[in-house]
Design brief:
Blueprint (H helix, E strand, L loop, with lengths): L25 H16 L4 E3 L9 E4 L11 E11 L3 E8 L2 E11 L1 E7 L5 E7 H14 L10 H22 L7
């Protein structure tokens, strides 16, 4: 396994709609394993492939609490097929928007279909934190970052802050955001 670089806003790749995976093979499993290692190292509870520059519909999630055994989920081509009318509000954060947290309202429960890391079709019925995490990561696959759920003013402030940071990095170390 290898730790991957996580891209951050304002990288335009985060706005891409990821492509479906034709079939689960060793290449896909390697990407999933590398994503899981990257997610744990960050640390985070979810990671979409686009966040590491791979525009394929892949997600890793582990919402187990500290001290509990790890319980990773690997989702290939996940799709939300049902959401509840009831909503929950969680303070969300994102590895692609480091150190920024804000409240986001989402459906309290959801049903997601996907392929597992062996290519077997599965369905997850989720509520609470897992439901929020699933919806957050699947949003990434559709080019949506959690700040897109905030008011325009809040979103613009966050983007402006990260755009300034990106410019400082370019000037100070010659770093340039990847365009792809």
């Amino acid at each position: 396994m290898a730790k991957l670089d996580i891209i951050t806003i304002p990288d335009p790749r985060l706005k891409l709609v990821s492509e479906p995976v034709a079939h689960v093979d060793d290449r896909i499993r390697k990407i999933l394993d590398d994503m899981l290692e990257t997610m744990y190292d960050a640390p985070g509870i979810g990671l979409a492939a686009i966040q590491v520059g791979v525009a394929e519909r892949l997600v890793t999630i582990d919402v187990s609490r500290e001290g509990e055994p790890k319980a990773p989920l690997f989702l290939v081509n996940p799709e939300v097929v049902w959401t509840s009318e009831e909503t929950n509000t969680y303070e969300e954060g994102c590895l692609s928007v480091p150190e920024h947290y804000d409240e986001v309202e989402r459906p309290a429960r959801c049903r997601v279909t996907h392929l597992d890391r062996d290519g077997v079709e599965r369905t997850i019925e989720a509520e609470g934190l897992l439901a929020t995490c699933l919806q957050h990561e699947i949003d990434h696959l559709n080019g949506v970052v959690f700040i897109d759920h905030l008011s325009r003013l809040k979103r613009e402030r966050v983007v402006k802050k990260f755009s300034k940071l990106a410019k400082v990095r370019v000037r100070s170390v010659g770093w340039r955001p990847s365009m792809g």
